[in-house]
Amino acid sequence: MVRAAVLPAVGAPLEIAEIDLPDPGPGQVRIRLAAAGVCHSDLSLSNGTMRVPVPAVLGHEGAGTVVAVGEGVTHVLPGDSVILNWAPSCGTCHACTLGEVWLCANALNGAADVYAHRTSDGGDLHPGLNVAAFAEETVVSSSCVLPLPEGIPLTDAALLGCAVLTGYGAIHHAARVREGETVAVFGVGGVGLSTLQSARIAGATTIVAVDVSPEKEELARAAGATDYVVASENTAREIRALTGKQGVDVAVECVGRAVTIRTAWESTRRGGRTTVVGIGGKDQQVTFNALELFHWGRTLSGCVYGNSDPAKDVPVLAEHVRAGRLDLGALVTERIALEGIPAAFENMVAGKGGRALVVF
Q: Is the dihedral angle over the CA atoms 112, 116, 102, 253 positive or is it negative?
C-alpha cells in the first residue's frame, strides 16, 4: 500500500489516503518518489480552472528511484534515479512531426486512464497529469521517465520536471532572450524564480521582477533580478522608467491574469516581446485595439511547458546546475509532507513563497 494525496472531486479538499498500485505492465515503470513540487497547475486542476478526470492523484513535478520496470522497458533499470515528464510527446501527431513536441496532441492521453485504486473501497483513481507524483510511489508510462543526469541532487531534481523547464524555456525558446537585452518577469513563484535565473544565464542586463508581495524582493534578487517592482496600476510606467523610458525588450508573464498580461505587454518597448506562461481561466479576457497593435508593433505569444523538449533540455539544465549557474535549491521556500499540500495551495493563492517541495 502507498500513501497519496487524492482529489476526490473538483473543488473538494485533498484527502490523504492509502492506494493500491499494480505491478508495472508492458512499457511501464514503478517509481518511489523522492520529492514532488507543488505547482500552480495542481491548484488549477483541483479548483476546476483546468480539467482533470477525478478522483485523481495530482502532482506532476517529481523525481525518484525506479523500483521495477515492465516488459520492453530498457532505458531505465531498477535503482536508477529519474525525473518525471508529465507531457511526453507521441512523436507522430502533427505538432510532433513539426518538431513542436510541447504541443503534442496526445501528451495528456494517459490522464484519463485508471492507474490505481483506493485501498478503502477499491475505487478507481486517475493519474492527474499522467504521473501522479503526490504519492510515495507511482506507476507511469516509460515515456514519462527521464534518466537523471549525474551530479544533480535527487530531491531538488524534481523541480526540473516543470518549474525549471518552463522558466528556462520561456527565456531561451519562447522569448529567445539575447545577451544584453532587458527583461521583466511578472510573478515570483517557482516558475518566476526559474525565469529570473534563466534570464541571468541568458545574459540579460536589466532584469525586473514584479510581484504583489513586497516580501519576495530578496528571493527575486537572489535569483538574478536587478530591480524589484511591487505590482500596482503604475507598474508599466515604473518599468519604463527603469529602462530609459523605453520599456523592456522582453516581458514574461507567470501569473495567468488578464490585467497582468496586459501590463506585461504595456511594459515592453515598441517592438518588444511578451511571453505568457501563466495559465488563466476562460473568464480572463485580454483586449487590445487595432491601432495600438499597429503602432507598438509588439509580439504577444503563449508558451506551453517552456516550449521545451525535456529529453534535450534536461541535460542542458543539468550542466547549468553542475556549473553553479542554476540553483535548484534556491527555488524552494518550504519543504513539506503530503499533509502540507493544502496549506501550500493556500500560500499560492495568497501570493506567498516560491516553490513548496513535498519530500518523502
A: positive
Cβ atoms of 186 and 252 closer than 8 Å: yes
Closest by CA to 126, choosing from 137, 136, 139, 116, is: 116
Residues whose CB is less than 8 angstroms from the CB of residue 316 and which lie 6 or more positions away in sequence, other chains included: none
Q: DSSP letter at 103?
A: G
Please give the backbone phi and psi of residue 292, each rounded to the nearest 5 degrees, phi first.
Answer: -70, -35
Burial class of residue 132 (count of CB atoms within 10 Å of its CB; 0-12, 13-18, 19+): buried
Chain segment 259-311, per-residue pLDDT in tens: 999 999 999 999 999 999 999 988 999 999 999 999 999 999 999 999 999 99
Q: Where are the alpha helices (DSSP H) in the chain?
A: 40-47, 94-97, 154-157, 163-169, 190-201, 217-223, 235-241, 258-266, 290-296, 310-322, 341-349
The phi, psi pair for 262, rounded to 5°, reads -65, -45
Query: Phi and psi for 160 in degrees, rounded to 5?
Result: -65, -25
Query: Residue 187: is it exposed, middle or buried by C-beta count within 10 angstroms (0-12/13-18/19+)?
Result: buried
Is it the case that residue 148 has pLDDT exceeding 90? Answer: yes
Residue type, 10: V
CA distance 221 to 223: 5
C-alpha separations of 139 from 3, 26, 91, 192, 278 in Å: 13, 11, 22, 30, 29
CA 220 to chain centre: 17
> pLDDT band at residue 180, thresholds of 50, 70 and 90?
very high
Mean predicted lDDT score pLDDT of the chain: 96
Tell the residue number behind the cell numbers 520536471, with chain if given.
161
The average pLDDT across 106-118 equals 95
Residue 277: C-alpha distances to residues 98, 249, 280, 283 (Å): 21, 17, 9, 17
Using DSSP's 3-state secondary structure scheme, residue 81 falls into strand
Burial of 42 (0-12, 13-18, 19+ CB in 10 A): buried
Judged on CB neighbours under 10 Å (0-12, 13-18, 19+), 190 is buried
pLDDT band at 120 (very low <50, low <70, confident <90, very high): very high
Amino acid identity, residue 160? L
